[in-house]
UniProtKB/TrEMBL annotation:
Belongs to the membrane fusion protein (MFP) (TC 8.A.1) family. It comes from Uabimicrobium amorphum. This is Hemolysin D. It comes from the Bacteria. Keywords: Coiled coil, Signal.
C-alpha cells in the first residue's frame, strides 16, 4: 500500500510524450522583384546556397541600350569643356575692360555687357554640369533596374524546389524557387492545455524522431498564449540544433517534457 502511495505521489514529476512533427526552421518561396522572362537559373535542387547569392536572373537586355546611352552622356566632357572655355573668355574680356575702366578708356555700357556675358557663361556651365549629374543618376537608375532582374537569396539554406524553368514568363507574384533553412529544425506539437501548464519558453525538452530512431535536445521557443477552444490544445514549438544536418524535417516525433501538476 505504501509503495502504491509513493508511486502516485511521484506521477507529477514523470515525463510525458507528446506527438509532433519536425519542420524546416525557415522556408521561403522566392519571388522576383520584376516580371519578365527567366534568362538563367544558377542553382539546382539540393544545392546549399549562401545569403546574397544570385540564384536566377530575368532577361534585362532591353535595358542595355538605354544604359549605354546614359553612360555616354555621363562620360561626355565636350559640352562642359566648351562652357568652361566660354566662361574663361568672358572673364578675360571683363578683366581687360576693368583695366581700361581704371584709366577711363571703357564705356559703362560695354562694361555691363561683358559682365552679362560672364553671368551667362557661368549659368551655361552650371547647366552643362547639371546635365552630366542627371546622366550619372540615369546610369544608376538603369543599373538598379537591371539589378532588380536578379533573384538573390535573402538567407542561407538549401534549394528544395525549382518551380519555374528557363524561358518561362514570370510575374512579380509567382514563386520561382523554394528555399529551406535546415541548420535548425522546428518541432511542432499540439498537446492538451493541461499538459503544458508547467512548460515555459526556454525549457529544455527531449525529442525522439520515430522513423530514424534518433534523439535530440530541444529548446521551447513558442507556447501559443491562446488555447484552441474546440480541441483544448496549445501549439508548442521547440527548436533542435541541426548544424551537422543529422536530423530530417518532415518526420513524426515525440516531445518529452515534465508532467504538469
Amino acid at each position: 500500500m505504501r509503495i502504491l502511495i509513493l508511486f502516485l505521489l511521484c506521477l507529477p514529476a514523470l515525463a510525458q510524450d507528446i506527438i509532433g512533427t519536425s519542420q524546416p526552421f525557415l522556408e521561403i518561396e522566392m519571388v522576383p522583384l520584376q516580371p519578365g522572362t527567366i534568362r538563367a537559373i544558377e542553382v539546382r535542387e539540393g544545392d546549399y546556397i549562401k545569403k546574397g547569392q544570385v540564384v536566377a536572373s530575368l532577361n534585362s537586355n532591353f535595358l542595355r541600350p538605354a544604359l549605354d546611352i546614359a553612360k555616354m552622356k555621363a562620360s561626355a566632357q565636350g559640352e562642359i569643356i566648351a562652357a568652361k572655355s566660354q566662361l574663361d573668355l568672358a572673364k578675360n574680356k571683363l578683366q581687360r575692360l576693368q583695366e581700361l575702366q581704371r584709366s577711363n578708356h571703357a564705356r559703362s555700357s560695354e562694361f555691363d555687357k561683358i559682365k552679362a556675358e560672364v553671368s551667362l557663361a557661368e549659368a551655361n556651365l552650371r547647366i552643362m554640369q547639371e546635365k552630366k549629374r542627371i546622366a550619372e543618376l540615369e546610369v544608376r537608375q538603369i543599373e538598379f533596374q537591371i539589378s532588380q532582374h536578379r533573384v538573390i537569396s535573402p538567407i542561407d539554406g538549401v534549394v528544395r524546389k525549382i518551380i519555374k524553368k528557363v524561358g518561362e514568363s514570370i510575374s512579380g507574384t509567382q514563386p520561382l524557387i523554394k528555399i529551406a533553412q535546415l541548420h535548425k529544425i522546428n518541432v511542432e506539437s499540439f498537446p492538451l492545455f493541461e499538459q503544458t501548464r508547467s512548460l515555459r519558453i526556454g525549457d529544455s525538452i527531449k525529442v525522439f524522431f520515430l522513423q530514424t530512431k534518433q534523439q535530440a535536445a530541444a529548446r521551447v521557443t513558442f507556447i501559443d498564449p491562446v488555447v484552441d477552444f474546440a480541441s483544448n490544445t496549445v501549439r508548442i514549438v521547440a527548436v533542435v540544433d541541426n548544424k551537422d544536418r543529422k536530423y530530417r524535417s518532415g518526420l513524426k516525433c515525440t516531445l518529452q517534457f515534465p508532467r504538469s501538476n
